[in-house]
Structure formats: structure tokens, C-alpha cells
Amino acid sequence: MVIFHINGSCQIFSLLVFDQIEQYLVENRGFTPGLPLHIIAHSSYIAALWFVPMCILFFGDFLGLFGGLVFTSTSFYMHCVMWLVTQKPKAFSFHRLTLWSVLLLVFYL
Prior knowledge:
Blueprint: H1 2-13, H2 15-27, H3 35-55, H4 59-87, H5 94-108
Helix pairs in contact: 1-3, 4-5
């Protein structure tokens, strides 16, 4: 299961790391740029990236915890803030006080 969680983030968020690894190998280590270097550099980086989380116990639980923290803020908190910004309710109206109480409750949870 860890492989499925990490696979998508490897392909998207590690592109800059892939480029830096290849640039380092070409400029400082004297490798010739090409498809074999590209495949070897990417494969070794992804293998190392997969090996570390598989060795950490409960890595899936960590992903679930961090994902839950992120989704809570985007699911509850951001909608309240966007409504406050777009609707601009009066200073001490019922809607504004209720919304701020929900915001604080979600923030403290």
C-alpha cells in the first residue's frame, strides 16, 4: 500500500530533484546525458524513495494523519473564510459570530 501512496507524489513532486540529480551527474561526475543515465538516475531515486517509507513502521498511518489534517482545513476552514471574504457580513451580526465560532472550533480541533 505504501507504494501506491508514494507513486503519484514521486512522479509529480520529484521532477526538480530528478533534474538536479541528472545535472549533478553530468556536470560534476562526467556522465554523458542520455536515456540510460535518465533511466538509471530516476530508477535509483525512486527505489531509494520507496525503500525508506517501507522501513518506517506505520507509515500509512502517518500519511492518513497528515492527509486528515490537510483535508480538515480545506473542507471546513477555507469555506468559512471564503464566505467571510465574499459576503462581508456586518461586524457583530449573527452570521459573522456563528461563522467565527465554527472557525475557532475547527481550528482547535
